[in-house]
Design brief:
Length: about 300
């Protein structure tokens, strides 16, 4: 399939790099810069993609900037695979490669990696508090976009997944470590949200019921299936690391907004709302752990098949 793009790599002295980037900026081209270690001079590499109908003009202007007689200066033009399916094929190859590495890795290596995910980092509770407060604002304003923004902040996927993996491997220490970290990452946004709500009440602010709040005080059929599916997706995303960030956002959607909602229901004093929000949050946590177990069981079958029936 003929390509409509070319990849260009420019090697030059660091002092000349600003001229090259200014030229690329003029053409409206995104570029990537990386340093190159050299004993003689400080050099760097700039990479960018450009359409074939302008590549000759760009190369001509680059020649005017760079003295190609010097060995530090070099321009490479590389053909790239193009077509509508290329990004999909590249991602598919990466996904298969990462999954193969995961299922063929020794169990002790996977345990070490999972322990790292289960260990609580100092910044994680703070990020969870910020996520909870952001979700609370979105819930009170009935603004789903703000709620979605809160999910981008929460770092809860790793600790939650470590619970499932600890149970699956019968590793009590790992399961407990993940449970403790998860509990802290849930308690942090809950406490922060509750304090914020009490402060609003003290200053005379209004806490009106919104659709976004009320929909998280009752359990539906979707709420039973969704966290299990998200748990399975979480297991596969951590195994491949290709979509881990995106899946982490989806998993946070099942935890952070319901946690902030639970804090709000306590300020209402309504037993019905408190029980409803507690049931939803508990069900989501349980479903995510069960989904993680199912996902890990599937990965275990793949590992056994890959290793001729041995344990992954």
């Amino acid at each position: 399939m003929p390509t409509s793009m070319k990849k260009v790599e420019v090697y030059c002295e660091t002092g000349t790099a600003d001229k090259v980037t200014s030229l690329l900026d003029k053409w409206g081209i995104y570029w990537y810069k990386s340093p190159i270690e050299s004993r003689e001079k400080k050099t760097c590499k700039l990479s960018f993609y450009a359409p074939i109908y302008v590549i000759d003009d760009i190369i001509g202007e680059l020649r005017a900037i760079l003295d190609l007689r010097k060995k530090e200066n070099l321009i490479l033009v590389i053909d790239v695979e193009a077509g509508l399916g290329s990004p999909y094929r590249v991602t598919k190859r990466k996904w298969r490669s990462r999954l193969k590495q995961y299922v063929s890795a020794p169990k002790f290596m996977l345990e070490e990696e999972t322990i790292e995910k289960a260990e609580l980092q100092p910044t994680q509770p703070l990020l969870s508090m910020i996520a909870g407060l952001t979700a609370l604002v979105g819930l009170l304003l009935n603004n789903p976009y703000v709620i979605i923004g809160s999910m981008l902040i929460s770092p809860i996927l790793g600790p939650l997944y470590s619970i499932s993996l600890g149970i699956y491997w019968k590793n009590r220490r790992l399961a407990i470590m993940g449970a403790k970290s998860t509990a802290i990452l849930i308690a942090s946004p809950f406490i922060a949200s509750l304090i914020a709500l009490v402060a609003i009440i003290i200053v005379g602010g209004e806490l009106n019921e919104t659709d976004e709040l009320l929909m998280r005080t009752r359990v539906t059929g979707y709420d039973i299936v969704l966290p299990i599916l998200l748990g399975i997706a979480g297991a596969f995303s951590i195994a491949t690391t290709i979509t881990e960030a995106l899946t982490g956002v989806a998993v946070a959607a099942a935890i952070i907004p319901p946690t902030a909602t639970l804090a709000w229901t306590i300020t209402t004093g309504s037993i019905e709302l408190i029980l409803g929000s507690t049931e939803l949050l508990s069900l989501n946590i349980f479903g995510l752990v069960v989904g993680g177990l199912i996902g890990q069981a599937i990965l275990g079958l793949l590992s056994a098949r890959n290793n001729g029936g041995g344990e992954g």
